[in-house]
TrEMBL record:
Matches recorded under InterPro entries: EF_hand_assoc_2, Sigma_54_int_dom_ATP-bd_1, Small_GTPase, Small_GTPase_Rho
Single biological process term from Gene Ontology: small GTPase-mediated signal transduction
The EF hand associated type-2 domain, residue ranges: 223-310
Keyword annotations: Calcium, GTP-binding, Hydrolase, Membrane, Metal-binding, Mitochondrion, Mitochondrion outer membrane, Nucleotide-binding, Repeat, Transmembrane, Transmembrane helix
Pfam families: EF_assoc_2, Ras
Listed GO MF terms: GTP binding; GTPase activity; metal ion binding
Source domain of life: Eukaryota
Ranges that cross the membrane: 532-553
UniProt keyword annotation of Mitochondrion present: yes
Stated family: Belongs to the mitochondrial Rho GTPase family.
PANTHER family on file: RHO FAMILY GTPASE (PTHR24072)
Protein name: EF hand associated type-2 domain-containing protein
Length: 562
């Protein structure tokens, strides 16, 4: 694991022993007695503790009663200290410190530290665990409290253990994964495990075979599982689930989650975080943004578009078929369950015509339309739902439309964007679309996205990306809208159903002229065309270079090798 810098801030009432605690740590590190008079950050030697990858800075605090110290804002872990021999001190944990931290919405892990253990009698210490009594209710009331520990700063008893616990809470925080009150996995952790399970389900059957489990183990932990290891894992799952649903030749997602829950309860939270970080999760259980920085190179201004590759569409088809021949709304929502951000993926109602069940055609069309306008958002969404694919494999760049030769490749595309430009009928059309624009439909296995723009919107946007990738314009008669871009155009017919008009446009797009006027075709043929003079010049240059090379090697003597 890479080096990680983190700050531990010690807070608590005056007199609980905060400065003495820090002095004790310094004494152990320097092997001599010293006293800390000023409240300054202390860099602790990494080799003293169980996690040398942590560069730990310890910060003492001093503040007025009933006031949180400013240093809390920069803390990665908070040590909240109280005096074991003072009932008023531990009562203040609930009445002030934790309540104030909660109200101010501090989210850092909190470790409750009982100091002055040396003042308690040994017999009393054996009778009951004071820290458990203190922590039990605090954990229920304050989710950031992860654990409690006792120490003696004077006797140097347990002070290093406190820092070890702080480092552990920082490296492997419990709160994002496990609810101590309900003794259950958090929703965020379940979402992450669902994605990981899907990625490692190589055959897409919704279960892990023994081979897939072993492959997962090798990938994440670089260790081999034998048959007895696999049997032991299934025994643990059976104990947790209290059934034998995973005793066969596979492990279910429920079994995988049960295994993680048991591991956390056995204090093996490090295992869960090792899995999460291997699959690029951050501490807040969102994916590393570096995964989504790569961009495709294509010329959008020349009308070039990006579409899902056949490989990506096959992956999406497999996800669909895992749920049957159609999807209910509940199944549709479950596919997107692992997503940890607000997505603008099209609503089902944006598809024409609407149906109660989601068909495979509808499913793929929604993805085609979404990717057409923003492939980077589509790639991020693919990653979250469990499609493990490189961005270069997920998409393909389609033809430009800046010359007649390029336009003639239009037939290869799967997605087309049709814009309706209107002056007086925008509200009528939007109502016809149930106020859901753009609308998406499928005609002869091709996806068509239909957007509505009023005349002013079109004038403002026609020269920017949204309308640079328009494949066809349907313009209302009363519009004065014109464009110099070479986009095929037809007039809106008031007496004909809009989808009947869309079907006619689809037919035009796939004719020999692709809906372009004769004038537009001539301009396309001229644009970016290569003249005969240019071709002759290139040939002459190549001949000249070839001849020069021939004469150079014909008459230049070679030197003998030594």
């Amino acid at each position: 694991m890479r080096k990680r810098d983190f700050k531990v801030v010690v807070i608590g009432d005056s007199g609980v022993g905060k400065s003495t605690f820090i002095s004790a740590l310094i004494n152990e590190s320097l092997n001599k007695v010293t006293h800390i008079d000023k409240h300054q950050p202390i860099q602790l030697p990494p080799e003293m503790f169980n996690h040398p990858q942590c560069n730990t800075t310890l910060i003492d605090t001093k503040c007025q009663p009933n006031q949180l110290p400013e240093q809390v804002k920069i803390a990665d872990v908070i040590l909240l200290m109280y005096a074991i021999d003072d009932d008023g001190s531990w009562e203040r944990l609930n009445k002030f410190w934790l309540r104030e931290l909660k109200e101010k919405e501090f989210k850092q892990p909190i470790i409750v530290v009982g100091n002055k253990l040396d003042l308690m009698g040994l017999d009393e210490d054996r009778e009951y665990c004071r820290i458990f009594k203190v922590i039990k209710q605090l954990v229920k009331d304050f989710s950031q409290v992860e654990m409690g520990i006792e120490c003696s700063s004077i006797k140097l008893q347990g002070v290093q253990d406190v820092i070890n616990c702080a480092q552990r809470s920082y490296l492997y925080p419990l709160a994002p994964l496990y609810n101590l009150v309900n003794k259950s996995l958090t929703e965020g952790f379940k979402k992450a495990l669902t994605r990981i399970f899907r990625i490692c389900d190589r055959d897409g059957d919704g279960k892990w075979s023994d081979f897939e489990l072993e492959r997962f183990q090798k990938k994440v932990f670089k260790k081999h599982l034998d048959s007895s290891d696999i049997a032991g894992i299934k025994d643990l799952i059976e104990e947790e689930l209290k059934d034998d649903s995973n005793k066969k030749s596979f492990i279910t997602l429920q079994g995988f989650m049960a295994l993680q829950k048991r591991g956390i309860e056995l204090m093996k939270i490090q295992i869960s975080w090792t899995i999460l970080r291997y699959f690029n999760y951050k501490d807040d259980l969102t994916l590393e943004e570096s995964l989504f920085q790569e961009e495709l190179k294509f010329d959008q201004n020349a009308g070039q578009t990006v579409e899902l590759s056949d490989f990506a569409l096959q992956k999406l088809k497999s996800i669909f078929l895992l749920n049957g021949q159609t999807l209910t709304q509940t199944q549709f929502n479950y596919i997107f369950y692992p997503v940890m951000f607000q997505t603008n993926f099209p609503l089902l109602q944006q598809y024409h015509s609407e149906s109660q069940q989601i068909t495979l055609t509808q499913w793929l069309a929604l993805w085609n339309a979404f990717s057409f306008f923003n492939y980077k958002d589509a790639y991020k969404l693919l990653s979250y739902i469990g499609v493990d694919i490189k961005i270069s494999d997920a998409f393909k760049e389609q033809n430009k439309k800046d010359s007649w030769h390029s336009v003639q490749k239009t037939i290869e595309r799967k997605v087309f964007h049709i814009a309706i430009i209107t002056k007086n009928k925008k509200k009528i059309l939007e109502k016809y679309f149930n106020n859901l624009s753009p609308k998406i439909t499928t005609i002869k296995s091709k996806t068509y996205v239909i957007s509505i723009y009023d005349e002013l919107q079109a004038e403002q946007q026609i020269e920017i990306s949204r309308l640079c990738i328009v494949d066809f314009l349907i313009i209302e008669n009363s519009c004065r809208f014109q464009t110099e871009q070479l986009i095929p155009i037809t007039l809106y017919n008031d007496d004909e159903d809009i989808y009947a008009q869309i079907s006619k446009v689809a037919e035009l797009i796939h004719t020999n002229t692709f809906g372009y006027s004769e004038n537009q075709i001539q301009l396309l043929k001229q644009k970016n065309g290569v003249s005969l003079i240019q071709i002759a010049s290139v040939i002459a240059l190549l001949v000249g270079l070839t001849s020069a090379g021939y004469y150079y090697f014909q008459f230049k003597p070679f030197k003998k090798s030594k």
